[in-house]
Amino acid sequence: MPRSKQWLLPSGVAVAAAAAGWMLMPANPPGQAEGKPSVEVGKEPAPTRSTALDRPVESLSKLRSLPYGAERDRAVLTLLSAADPGQLKAILADPATRLHERSAAVKQWAEKDPTGCFEWYRDLTPARRELVEGYDNLLAVMMRTWAAQDPAAALKAARSVAHRTEFVDAPWEVISAVIASDLTKGLRLACDSATFSSTTSRLTAGLWEKNPGAFVKAAGELRASGTWNYFLDEGRTKALEMWHAQAPAAALATVSALPRDDRARLLPRLMELTFDKDGVDAAAAMVAGQPAGDVKERTARVLLEKWAATDPVAAAKWMDDNVPSNRSEAMVTIIRAAAETQPALALEIAAGLDPGPMRDRAMVGIADAAGGDSEHAAPVLSWLLTQPGDPARRTALGKLTDHWIETAPDQAEAFLKSAKPGEIPDGLASGLAARHFADGAPQALAWAQGLDGTQRDQAVSSVFYRAGIETPPDETVGLLRRVPAAEREAALQAVLYGSLRAKGGGGLAAVLPAEFKTLARQQVESWPAKMEGRDALLQSLR
Hints:
The chain is an all-alpha fold. It is built from 34 helices and no strands. Helix 8 (135-149) runs antiparallel to helix 9, helix 20 runs antiparallel to helix 21 (327-341) and helix 25 (392-407) packs parallel to helix 27 (428-436). The longest helix is centred in the middle third of the chain and has 19 residues, at 260-278. The protein is flat. 39% of the residues are buried. Mean pLDDT is 80; it is low at 1-52.
């Protein structure tokens, strides 16, 4: 028989080969007399001619007759490791090949010829795939084996087919194989992958939990090298939370040693975790132990915000001893946080401040925090009306009424009608008019025309701006006829802006009567020449 491919047995499988030799080798190889040993005792067998690789499927079938156990498994592995890609393909094509044999064959093929193995797997027909037991397992075996040799090539191939349902996990298999041996390298590969989003759910299935400390450190290395994305940002925060629960001292030591930008991102979150788990004293001690600088002060402000929600006085006292700079911003943080739960106390603290920027910012912060709760907003409104210091007071009133327009429009409207002109913030009348527009454009216009002075002008303009966006052109012309001639120019300007934003303005221009069209053309001509849509609208008004 002509000499075929040699079958070299590793020393570790010699025993298994001997056990299987009677079905893998000819009864009397050439040059050997019957009854004589083929090798000397204590020596490895010399390369011999093998019929096993001429008929790999038959040889594998014979091995199955051996008793279950390690020897048979090693004999199968020896056969597969000696086979070339063509012979492995023949074994894989045999329906009788078992799952563990198929996995081993794919692994051998992927080690010897990863591209060819991938092409075979990719091109299997759907019908053939249904016959192949453990098809999904083969994907994992193949991609992980290839990733150990050339992760970039493996990932490129995986990405080329990831749009197919049966290959959707291919990128993950490559990335996870690399992560298993080198977390930082694997995460970098994931960040660089165009199909990274398809692996995110798999990565979140346990990577952070397995070794959160390692994840935090690896993610930090990637950020320092310029590799970053949303997953690492979110993942590192979650890993930090898990790490803090397992080893808070180690988590704090690592975060404290990070570069400034990373400390600024993670230290406040670590402080919050400490506050929630161990209480305010532990959180305050953690912050106090940090070196002076903007990171410490940023973390302190987060602490003060949480602390002030329950005990603003104690938070303010701690601030006096631990926040040497940016005290104005820290005090405003305390007052604003207190206003959400204890508005009366927040007002008391703010009232004790000297007139100036800190008091002004506190006033705005209280109004913004209390505006969403009508019960809290009433005393805040009364206090604001007693305060000097426009424009800060008007800004604060605007914060308060902005909330009211959405949550308590009746209160906002009552304030609009009862307040003195200097107390009414900009935008209140127009905001309420926009809200009335939900009842219909004519009803909103009637409400707006019931106001006086500047508030009337703002409300009417708001109604017509909305009409330009939402109302059919014929109905909009009808609204314009309800406006006195002295107010028509402002109304027409507002409706043109709204129409231009929503529909380009052509529909309205087509139905405007001559009495309005001339005035509309004059207004559009006065708009900036580079304004988008201006020229087309002007052409429609010719």
